[in-house]
Amino acid sequence: MIRVVLPAHLRTLARVAGEVELGVAAPVTQRAVLDALEAAYPMLCGTIRDHGTLARRPFLRFFVCGEDWSHESPDKPLPDAIAQGTEPFFILGAIAGG
Amino acid sequence: MSGVRVLVGTRKGAFILTADGKRQKWDVSGPHFAGWEIYHVKGSPADPKRIYASQTSGWFGQIIQRSDDGGKMWHQPGTPPGEPTTAPDGSPKGESNKFVYDASAGSGKPLTTHQWYDGTQHPWEFKRVWHIEPSLTDPETAYAGVEDAAIFRTTDGGKTWHELAGLRGHGTGPKWQPGAGGMCLHTILLDRANPARIYIAISAAGAFRSDDNGKTWKPINQGLRSPYIPDPTAEIGHCVHRVALHPARPNVLFMQKHWDVMRSDDSGDTWREVSGNLPTDFGFVIDVHAHQPDTVFVVPIKSDSEHFPLEGALRVYRSRSGGNEWEPLTRGLPQRDCYVNVLRDAMCVDTFDPCGIYFGTTGGQVYCSADGGENWAPIVRDLPAVLSVEAQSLP
Q1: What is the pLDDT of residues B362-376, one digit of tens each?
Q2: Of B242, B6, B47, which Cα lies nearest the Cα of B134?
Q3: Class of domain A2-93
Q4: What's the predicted TM-score (pTM) here?
Q5: Of B32, B80, B147, B315, which one is least surrounded by beta carbons within 10 A?
């Protein structure tokens, strides 16, 4: 299972308390993870990616095994640690605002 | 009527204030959607338990929330609590947050750009819902005014939203430009006597009217004068802050423009200034007494560069003559060291007799007058900055 860590506000929207676990068929990519996330939690549609273009929202970042994958191709395979569920896929909100 | 429910949208959540008809003792619930900007919360006139809310965030975008029990429980339309969040085929059910501009050829003249601050053309980009106006007769139908300016409609209780593209497509769209707060469609007025008629207003484009249920639109800005734009009497480009009408006399409109308080007696075809003796005619809010169509309320703000009351004294001004003659209402309002603003959607009236008037400030106060404006008292003092206030008179 793929593990996903959501920002607090999105956990509230999705009505989940901790990490989210998703079944994702290989190859496991950012796009596949986000597609599975939105399918399981449709209330998150549009909150991470634009409804139309599916572009990442500007104030969100994707972190994988300690690295910023926000600008990587959404179709690039994620590391085995993500695919095997030993490391979570982090979705983070920028620290900004008041 | 049994009581009143005041729906307050703030920078950090929504609050619901309830009282009986005396409007002296209030219960406060919230924050709902804590931490999110709540631009507007409004109940259905056809079903007071049905409430729509616009929940928005610079990080996470637009969420539409709905309550079917008067604000106790909320859900995103299409994903109610306790029901599966996906359709039987596994596909997402939730389309309620999806506001996609109509770019189809069938919509007439689909537009892709408007005027940017520097005069260049800029793509239309959806940012948020500023205002939700539920239908007067059908709880499942509501209109949404959005930034960048456009109007959307739902007929399924908020599950799906579709643009009334004739507004952007009628021809002047490339001349619209953002005000300082963005290019927002902030006012939607429905006409109970003429269900096909809709008024809207955009900052900074002006006011528009549809007489065919939103299919086609025309600008209604004749008589507005804005010396700070290249052509002060242009058909388009005026920074309208708010428009209000009395339900029993819907052909008479009152407008708080960037500067100037205006009145139209012909459904917006022509306007005349009624600022009269106001100490400053800059401001954001305007509303009409529930039982006296010629009694109008505004909150004068010092200027477009100093968004606070004159002399640090918070004063509502009331005209009983439909404009021009205004009197200050100060009893119970702070008359020194007050430097808050009152934003465009943050004033409303209830339908009790005597009429209740409400407004919220950027300092987090929500004030109520239960006697038509003579006496004021804060319901709450320390909320986050108030973006919108709407009152529901409960049966």
Answers
A1: 999 999 999 999 999
A2: B47
A3: alpha beta
A4: 0.94
A5: B80
